[in-house]
Amino acid sequence: MANPLLDDRDVEFLLDEVLDLSTLTTLPYFADHDRGSFELVLASARRVAREVLYPAYRALDEQPPRLIDGAIHVHPRLKELWPRVRELGLQVATRPSEVGGLQLPTTVFTLATAYLMAANLSVYGYVGLTQGAAHLIEAFGSEALKRDYMAPMYGGAWTGTMALTEPQAGSSLSDVTTTAEPTADGHYLVRGSKIFISAGDHDLADNIVHMTLARLRGAPPGIKGVSLLCVPKRRLEGGKLVDNDVAVTGMIHKIGWRGLPSLALAYGERGDCRGWLVGEPHQGISYMFQMMNEARIMVGLNGVATASVAYQESLAYARDRPQGRPLGARDPATPQVPIVRHPDVRRMLLRQKAIVEGALALLVRASWYSDLAQHGGDARAQLMLDLLTPIAKSFPAERGFEANVLALQIHGGYGYSSEYLPEAWLRDQKLNSIHEGTTGIHALDLLGRRAVAKGGAALAAFAAEVATTCDRARAAGVDAAWIAEVTRGVEVITGLTAALGARGLAGDVEAMMLHAADYLELCSIVAIAWQWLELAAAAKTGRRADRAGFYQAKLAAAQYWIRTELPRIDHLAGLCRSGEDSYGRLDPDWL
Amino acid sequence: MANPLLDDRDVEFLLDEVLDLSTLTTLPYFADHDRGSFELVLASARRVAREVLYPAYRALDEQPPRLIDGAIHVHPRLKELWPRVRELGLQVATRPSEVGGLQLPTTVFTLATAYLMAANLSVYGYVGLTQGAAHLIEAFGSEALKRDYMAPMYGGAWTGTMALTEPQAGSSLSDVTTTAEPTADGHYLVRGSKIFISAGDHDLADNIVHMTLARLRGAPPGIKGVSLLCVPKRRLEGGKLVDNDVAVTGMIHKIGWRGLPSLALAYGERGDCRGWLVGEPHQGISYMFQMMNEARIMVGLNGVATASVAYQESLAYARDRPQGRPLGARDPATPQVPIVRHPDVRRMLLRQKAIVEGALALLVRASWYSDLAQHGGDARAQLMLDLLTPIAKSFPAERGFEANVLALQIHGGYGYSSEYLPEAWLRDQKLNSIHEGTTGIHALDLLGRRAVAKGGAALAAFAAEVATTCDRARAAGVDAAWIAEVTRGVEVITGLTAALGARGLAGDVEAMMLHAADYLELCSIVAIAWQWLELAAAAKTGRRADRAGFYQAKLAAAQYWIRTELPRIDHLAGLCRSGEDSYGRLDPDWL
Questions:
Q1: Could you read off the pLDDT of B468-506 as tens digits, one per residue?
Q2: CA distances from residue A517 to A398, A439, A575, B346, B416 in whole angstroms, order as listed
Q3: Cα separation of A419 and B251, whole Å?
Q4: Measured between CB atoms, which of A222, A315, A510 is closest to B327?
Q5: Collapsed DSSP state (helix, strand, coil) of residue A265
Q6: What phi and psi values does residue A89 have, to the nearest 5 degrees?
Q7: Is residue A436 annotated as a catalytic residue, yes or no?
Q8: Residue B1 has pLDDT above 70, yes or no
Q9: Other beta carbons within 10 Å of A495
Q10: Which residue of A328, A510, A557 is in closest CB contact with B509?
């Protein structure tokens, strides 16, 4: 059987047994939708993922785009399949009908796109970037920009990019030096260099719209002087598209996502690169950050999807591959058994499952909060989305990578070859701990901003949400010890955050933040344990008689996470509190 | 500055301040050696590693060997540099002078070869395999085989392989089906298929000697019916080399070690493949296992070396790359600081250092025990070597891989490109958890055999060795709390092993072994903590006035490991004892 990418039963379980979809469908924005319309979206995404994107995965990985005379040429296979992806319309699916959208809940969109990502991360990259770029114009741009640049992106004719990073600045956006000089004609003349611009050039579409961070003349230094500009590859002049002086100056040879070019771009080498200000001057970073949550959830989902496809592959392999015999039954005259019979192989499978399905549940939950916050005016949901975002972004990247390593390991020597795909997914996955903010940056963001924001309101909301899950679990008859452990996890976070926050308030920010990485890991473990408790509650009261084994496996994975991972939080909290200072006081000159 | 591969100061520290070399040099076997002769070996290995092997790394990674008309052609660069490697004579360095060896201590050999592995794992692979193959004949072969096949390997003219694995059997050597039919002429006719045979063909040397596991006609089934045969690529007939009917049937496209071909071989397709029995019939597995410790230590060293070169690269990068500003000093008018100023980057560096240098110390210690056992008749040293081998093999593979991931992460977006080398080392490293026994197999070996062998004598020896280190640390003035924690670690292992062993004795081997992976990790953490305590003691009393910072860094890494990793053992021991059964009782059909 071909790799299913995601387990359809998981998707149904989340939509039908974990969540109460009527909470969404009774909101006016989603009024035209019901479970049937969701299924149509899911079915078409699943079909394109399985029949079109997945079969092209290897070809795109093996033969990356080529840079010829300053232009990127993608794999012919990608040009062939691109119309099938475009016509899904996912780049506009969640948007309002007035911009051509379907007003689809992000919750459903997340599950639909997960199939596409699992099938072919690179191809979905073009869609995701276009969605983000168009959404920036929708949210902050003028009517003219919406008409001229947003509409063709949402319509699927053009694609978009996020042009933030510069060679000398990396993650430090306050050090952006690209400039935008005002002209009397309303546009700006843009000059500068960008790097790591995904989909920054290609021959899939007539035009590419670069949402670009730059400084207007006279802007203040640092982050408060950065503006957002819309800088197309080709600008509209007199109803025609003319070259806009954005040059490809190099291609990065990435180790994964090899269907999606990552480029160095030069703006205005001929002095003729025009950009249009989006929104107000100097607000570029704040605009970007409003979109960033979306992008980060998407990166988290990339991580889940890439771990999922590998998990499915290793599960099938472990069931098929005969090797060795059970302990204590070593008679060489008996046939070898499939390796799934070995407990350590099941350990590696269950750990993957716990990571993949726990993280998928978290991503769907974050999407759920996004829907409730944006369309239900739910303030607690907004707090939850803000709090969960660094976790939803970095947990799938870090632990998803570990899951990918386990999938390779299960394949043994074959896993170490490019004849099998686990090594390719491992390469793909590694990017997710780097782009859209490294894991280290998300750790600082979680502890330094999100967890302590609004006088602890976010953590109070988290405690309340977990308490609701505990009530459900109790009612469903889930092991009381599990419920107690998850509850204690929340208390550990709350107490620790207060203690660390006090250090910050006392002026010692370094001491507060020294173990931010451990804090992020601790919060991630608890958040995933919370999701497993929710999944366990739904499994315990599972309604489908044909899925008894499916529910049993869910309970096994919940047990695994709560018994094996959750107890680690005490040590992590101890490190954070103790301020263990080995690297804190390390003088780099000693090394 | 070019990558140093290993820090020379570490090598000097181990030889001059951690160990007492006179213990070795007073043994008769090493009587011709002193610190000066060791330095000559180290200096020549280091020079070839830095000047010859490292500069060729990228070329060999980018262009793997090619299979043309059944023959492997290696990269021209490899053919050029091969004489420089051969002339080091490392394949025979530790062997007795009567077979052309230098009688070099394995302790020194390990450090010398670590440079070569760090420079170019693939190239060293040819040497290491040749050494192992020749050593098998030296130990078990007839005088004729020694003359005809061992001597040219030790002399550097030919190379060798270990031909164990078969497609249908993988790690399950009891399922080997290659056959050897006796003839009246003293040789056997061999037929069968092998896979994953590293260096199984190439054009570096005139001949290749395959040390091959096969079944003689009428052999009993299973592991007790497997014999060892010497099967050359070309056999000697009338003083000439003639083709011996070993065909290359395929090449595995490995993701790393790309200078070293991994091949599928077919023996006797024309019915004319001759092999010579090595030692007694049906003793093949036991012979192989006597060499296996050596091979496993070598794999562990591969892991250390590959993590070391990446650590050095990321350290240099972190010192050079300016990005961002310290927390609480965010004035954008100030210059950006090197990323090594960010505590989380130092965390990633110190974690790498703790893994790399802790593991290097463990490998050197294992080599030390090997020297004392083989040439000093030291029974405790033999017990220690046997006990430490699964740890010395798998810790560098697993945690070394994690270190390689951190080196890539420190490089940010650049680390995700093949313009930088960390991704290549990451690919190289991944093999080490798979070949020479997967980590899962070593976990079973440690708990099921080595830790419980000889009525607990191995663990008693371990406790005694750690106690000696504690004495030294106490005398040196190392923090008493560290000493207490390491001592407690040994107690945890001892108590846990007794408890698990009792389950096995009571007949429940499955329950005993269910958490073998956690047991291996626990023992590894304690073993590395023991080494860090030893290194800390030496650093605390460091004799070189010019290395105060170097000693400080050692103490920081010791503190990191003892405070951050060592406390994890309680949770791991709890899992082993509790028999947490989520994957144990998991029915694969549920998934």
A1: 999 999 999 999 999 999 999 999 999 999 999 999 999
A2: 12, 8, 10, 12, 21
A3: 11
A4: A510
A5: strand
A6: 70, 25
A7: yes
A8: no
A9: 12
A10: A328
DSSP B432: G
Q: What is the SS3 assignment for B78?
A: helix
Cβ distance of A353 and B591 shorter than 8 Å: yes
Residue A1: its pLDDT value, please?
64
Tokens linked to A417: 């070859």
Q: Tell me, what's the pLDDT at A518?
A: 98
| pTM across the whole model | 0.97
Q: Residue B294: which of B393, B190, B208 has the closest Cα?
A: B393
pLDDT in tens, B149-208: 999 999 999 999 999 999 887 778 888 999 999 999 999 999 999 999 999 999 999 999
Shortest Cα distance from B100 to chain A (angstroms)?
Answer: 35
Interface predicted TM-score (ipTM) of this complex, two decimals: 0.97
Q: At what angle do helices A284-320 and A106-119 cross, to 10 degrees?
A: 60
Search chain B and give the residue with CA nearest A341.
Answer: B588
Q: Is B327 on the interface with A (CB under 8 A)?
A: yes
> B 158-177 residues with CB below 8 A of A?
165, 168-172, 174-175
In this structure, which amino acid lies at residue A481? A
Alpha helices in B164-283 (DSSP H): none
Q: Does A588 touch chain B (CB under 8 A)?
A: yes
Which of A17, A436, A485, A534 is labelled catalytic?
A436
Asked if A579 reaches chain B (Cβ–Cβ under 8 Å), the answer is: no
Q: What's the rounded Cα separation, in Å, for the pair A575 and B345?
A: 17
Mean pLDDT of B239-253: 97
Q: Of the candidates A327, A413, A556, which has its C-beta nearest B196's C-beta?
A: A413
Return d(Cα A556, Cα A564) in angstroms, integer.
12
Q: Where are the alpha helices (DSSP H) in B96-201?
A: 106-119, 121-140, 143-145, 151-154
**183-222 in A: which are within 8 Å (CB) of B?**
195-196, 221-222
- Rg over alpha carbons for chain A, rounded to the nearest Å, is 24
Give contacts of A401 with chain B, Cβ < 8 Å.
405
Question: What is the model's pLDDT at position A256?
Answer: 98
Mutate to test the interface with A, among B251, B408, B431, B590 (most CBs of A within 10 A): B590
Average pLDDT over residues B21-49: 98
Contact (CB, 8 A) for A111 and A364: yes
Give dist(CA A563, CA A482) in Å, integer: 8
pLDDT at B513 over 80: yes
**A274-277 and A227-232 as β-strands: parallel, antiparallel, unpaired?**
antiparallel
User: Amino acid identity, residue A92?
Assistant: V
Q: Which two tokens stand for residue A584?
A: 């804190």
d(C-alpha B129, C-alpha B299), whole Å? 11
- Across all residues in chain B, what is the average pLDDT? 96
How far is the C-alpha of A541 from the C-alpha of A17, rounded, in Å? 9
- Tell me the average confidence (pLDDT) per consecutive run of 10 residues in chain A, 591 residues long: 94 98 97 97 98 98 97 98 96 97 98 98 97 97 98 98 89 89 97 97 98 96 95 95 98 97 98 98 92 89 98 98 87 91 97 98 98 97 96 98 98 96 98 96 96 93 98 98 98 98 95 97 98 98 96 98 98 96 96 94
Query: How many angstroms separate the CA atoms of A50 and A209, rounded?
Result: 29
Contacting residues for B69 by C-beta, under 8 A, at least 6 apart: none
DSSP states of A34-91 as a string? -HHHHHHHHHHHHHHIIIIIGGGHHHHHHS--EEETTEEE--HHHHHHHHHHHTT-GG
Per the CB < 8 A criterion, the answer to whether B528 and B359 are in contact is yes
H or E element that contains B465:
helix B457-476
Whether residue B64 contacts residue B259, with contact meaning beta carbons closer than 8 Å, is answered with: yes
